[in-house]
């Protein structure tokens, strides 16, 4: 691996680290965004450390210390991260669903398996050398080989189960979008690369896994910086092309507090203040911020910011009808938006046209 290759990868590592830190500070009550920021920052930091080490060696062909097949340490590292990342589709489609108990339930198999693997390495440590697939069957009666095979199968099947559960879940107010398909496609690609790397000793696969991991991290970090929930769309925020609006069966019921929030916002329009936040809303309703957040998520919104922006978009349309002479900029600020880019992106996603085109059509109709 040359210096140029390492420099490019190190640049991506630093981008992942910086974007992760930004996400952590911007997440607010959007916990998936917060957790993705933590993951991105950790991956960026870990990969940066490794690649800086290679650059200090200053060699075109670094020699990797490859080890035998079904390596427990390698499988444990994958198993822990893969199952956490596989939870993001569920968190995206069902905001607020993954409480501490449900997260623990989904992660219980890897927690038990990883604990057993660590205990075996720590208290026994006998590892049968296996350097090819042909050596697995003759050694299958060895305790460590049985354990390694079990860990490998679980490390593939458990993330698959979580992904399938997310795809076929119907208790949601959100719809899978193209980014979710891309995300799931990446995870399947990772499963394939991980399988090859676990069952073979291959420098190319090792490098492929590393570069794919960092590209994956940077790509979805950028998407999280642009969107509150890049993997799915709230049904009320999906552009209707003239077809019947999409209805999802068995949708969860919103918490009673949500009706109070809706009534207050429709009557007072406090979100027209660009600095309006959840603390202000909680104070006005004399409720806890956590309860406000959970009520909003019970209606399928990722968090306060996505919900407020949805209200601002509807208010913009109302102002546009009532004030045909005002410019788009005036209407945008009057609706509570402070970022032109955020406004344009959200409006186009929700209504299928740009704000300027919408106002043009509105004036022609008038």
Automatic annotation (TrEMBL):
Keywords: DNA-binding, Membrane, Transcription, Transcription regulation, Transmembrane, Transmembrane helix. Residues 259-361 form the HTH araC/xylS-type domain. InterPro entries: Homeodomain-like_sf (IPR009057), HTH_AraC (IPR018060). Pfam families: HTH_18 (PF12833). PROSITE patterns: HTH_ARAC_FAMILY_2. The chain crosses the membrane at residues 6-27, 34-58, 78-98, 110-133, 145-168, 180-199, 205-225. GO terms for molecular function: DNA-binding transcription factor activity; sequence-specific DNA binding. Signal peptide: none annotated. It comes from the Bacteria. PANTHER family: ARAC-FAMILY TRANSCRIPTIONAL REGULATOR (PTHR43280:SF29). This is AraC family transcriptional regulator. It comes from Bacteroides faecium.
């Amino acid at each position: 691996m040359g210096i140029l290759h390492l420099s490019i990868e190190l640049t991506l590592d630093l981008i992942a680290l910086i974007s992760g830190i930004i996400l952590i500070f911007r997440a607010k009550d959007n916990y998936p965004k917060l957790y993705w920021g933590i993951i991105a920052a950790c991956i960026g930091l870990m990969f940066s450390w490794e690649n800086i080490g290679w650059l200090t060696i200053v060699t075109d062909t670094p020699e990797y210390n490859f080890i035998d097949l079904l390596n427990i340490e390698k499988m444990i590292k994958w198993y822990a991260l893969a199952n956490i990342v596989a939870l993001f589709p569920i968190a995206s489609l069902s905001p607020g669903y993954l409480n501490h108990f449900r997260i623990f339930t989904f992660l219980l198999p890897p927690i038990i398996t990883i604990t057993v693997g660590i205990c075996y390495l720590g208290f026994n440590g006998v590892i049968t050398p296996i350097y090819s697939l042909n050596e697995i069957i003759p050694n299958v009666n060895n305790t460590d080989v049985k354990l390694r095979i079990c860990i490998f199968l679980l490390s593939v099947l458990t993330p698959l189960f979580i992904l399938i559960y997310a795809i076929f879940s119907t208790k949601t107010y959100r719809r899978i979008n193209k980014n979710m398909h891309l995300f799931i496609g990446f995870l399947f690609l990772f499963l394939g690369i991980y399988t090859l790397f676990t069952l073979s000793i291959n420098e190319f696969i090792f490098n492929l896994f590393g570069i794919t991991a960092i590209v994956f991290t940077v790509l979805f970090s950028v998407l999280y910086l642009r969107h509150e929930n890049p993997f799915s769309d709230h049904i009320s925020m999906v552009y209707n092309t003239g077809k019947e609006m999409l209805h999802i069966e068995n949708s969860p019921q919103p918490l009673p507090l949500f009706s109070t929030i809706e009534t207050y916002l429709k009557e007072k329009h406090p979100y027209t203040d660009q600095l309006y936040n959840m603390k202000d809303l909680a104070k006005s309703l004399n409720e806890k911020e956590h309860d406000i957040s959970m009520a909003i998520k019970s209606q399928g919104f990722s968090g306060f910011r996505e919900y407020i922006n949805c209200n601002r978009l509807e208010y913009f349309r109302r102002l546009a009808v009532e004030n045909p002479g005002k410019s788009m900029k005036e209407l945008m600020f009057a609706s509570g938006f402070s970022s032109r880019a955020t406004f344009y992106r959200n409006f186009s996603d929700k209504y299928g046209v740009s704000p300027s085109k919408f106002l043009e059509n509105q004036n022609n109709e008038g």
